[in-house]
Amino acid sequence: xxxxxxxxxxxxxxxxxxxxxxxxxxxxxxxxxxxxxxxxxxxxxxxxxxxxxxxxxxxxxxxxxxxxxxxxxxxxxxxxxxxxxxxxxxxxxxxxxxxxxxxxxxxxxxxxxxxxxxxxxxxxxxxxxxxxxxxxxxxxxxxxxxxxxxxxxxxxxxxxxxxxxxxxxxxxxxxxxxxxxxxxxxxxxxxxxxxxxxxxxxxxxxxxxxxxxxxxxxxxxxxxxxxxxxxxxxxxxxxxxxxxxxxxxxxxxxxxxxxxxxxxxxxxxxxxxxxxxxxxxxxxxxxxxxxxxxxxxxxxxxxxxxxxxxxxxxxxxxxxxxxxxxxxxxxxxxxxxxxxxxxxxxxxxxxxxxxxxxxxx
Length: 361
Hints:
alpha+beta, 8 helices, 26% strand, rod-shaped
């Protein structure tokens, strides 16, 4: 019996020593926590960044801007001038004015002579009695005039009409983050940017998460799709390319939040309160509401900025509603001190209880 008590006492002394060593490690290095830096460490090492306590006096530079108004104008498509290119298919009508039976082409009264021809890879169009003529870059009217000139002297005065029936020059390519990418014809009429995206099935992401790039020759324009929906629509020039891709509208949530990780901003004008809500809010039982931080790199400023909110203050709820979260921001919520203590002491207590139970047996 005496020997058993001695063994138990020795074991408990070892456990106590282990507990003291663990507590000293927790107090010195802060290496026990894997969530990130402690609140005190962030507040003390301000030589690397500018620490801003958000309150009524300091909030102004970090507030959300006003939502831009929706434009009342409606884009009115106007048929653009089509310039032909290789791959276009033309339907050519040639009608002779001479009596039937004495002309190369059928008279207009009988419908004339219908010829269908594709512009080859060299940009040339081949027609009987006209020959192989370079037409790339011409308008339909210019092709009609060219045919009329080439037939002069070969036959009597003719009537010509050229119609584009298979177009590459007038089509619009839509690619990227849309449901059904492809090339869409403008033969039925000019396309606006919204027309083209709708024909492609619409974007696969929320509008504020989509950037739109419109390319035509040397001209490049970029929009956010929300801006297009707000009224910044435009008529697309023939042979345009429209590319939709994911906008860099993300932030990182770390520490004592319910759902940490890389997240999409809920909208283009996201508040800190909205961002916290999108990750489930502060984690109950472990978060230090006094230590809510936003880490931000700002172009043109010598040092990064760290915003700090004390969510124990009821007014901080209103501040969090007004502070804007920008793409690439990091939101970090520190752990409560009691939670850090529990992480250290709980395994020790469990081990001591298990050891005591083993010693008694």
